[in-house]
Amino acid sequence: MLFRSEIAAVARRYDLWLHVDAAYAGPAAILDECRYVLQGTELADSLVVNPHKWLFTPIDLSALYTRRPEVFRRALALEHAPAYLSAAAETLNKPGAAVNLSDYSVALGRRFRALKLWFVLRYYGREGIAEILRGHMRMAREFAESVQADPRFELAAPVAFSLVCFRLRASDEENRELLARINATGKTFLSSTHLRGQFVLRLAIGNIATTAADVQETWDLISSSAPHQRPPGGVPAL
Length: 238
Ligand SMILES: *Cc1c(COP(=O)(O)O)cnc(C)c1O
Description:
- The chain is α+β, with helices and mostly antiparallel strands.
- 40% of the residues lie in helices and 13% in strands.
- It has helices at 4-13, 51-54, 69-76, 83-93, 114-149, 172-184, 212-225, and strands at 19-21, 46-49, 63-66, 153-155, 163-168, 191-195, 198-204.
- Pyridoxal-5'-phosphate binds at residues 21, 23-24, 50, 53, 62.
- Pyridoxal-5'-phosphate (PLP) is lined by residues 21, 23-24, 50, 53, 62.
């Protein structure tokens, strides 16, 4: 695996734009013990973190950071605006005026999305947010332990944050059926993906209201919805 600093060196050599997609995991860097997730980002041209993923704001709020805002401006600012738009642009672009974010993106009209995050930051504070993130990661680890303790299941990826990828030790078809059965209850919602060619279930913990009891209940539901234990290799038990 290439580390970001090595990727950055390649990007620089070939004059490529290096974007860091930290949409989901970026907020983990709020925790001292997880700061490494943004390691090397200082060498990137841009970074995205989505507070609507794991920073408790309702959809949508994606934060884009870039060290090269002029590139966005060159591509997206209204240069030949029709008269009814240019007056607004002139007012906004006067020295000392607020940054006109429509010059850096496709949309002209914009909602004040950042307000949602401002409330979250003010209400919980850095430590409060860190505690919630740690709690989510703890719940994910506990869920992963339940998965590992059940011989019918296996983890499909390491649990780095609050996402657990796991599967029945069975066919993709059986995993799909299990997913459908669980989601049909309406009690929890799992998603899925493919890892190394296999269909895999995903449990993502990110909601501020989620408790350890919810996660335990979800595991109980999964466990009781899964086919009963079969001996390894499918040999009938005596
Ligand atoms: C969710 C996600 C996206 C998409 O983000 P949206 O702004 O919600 O469309 C992109 N990359 C990663 C890694 C994600 O987790």
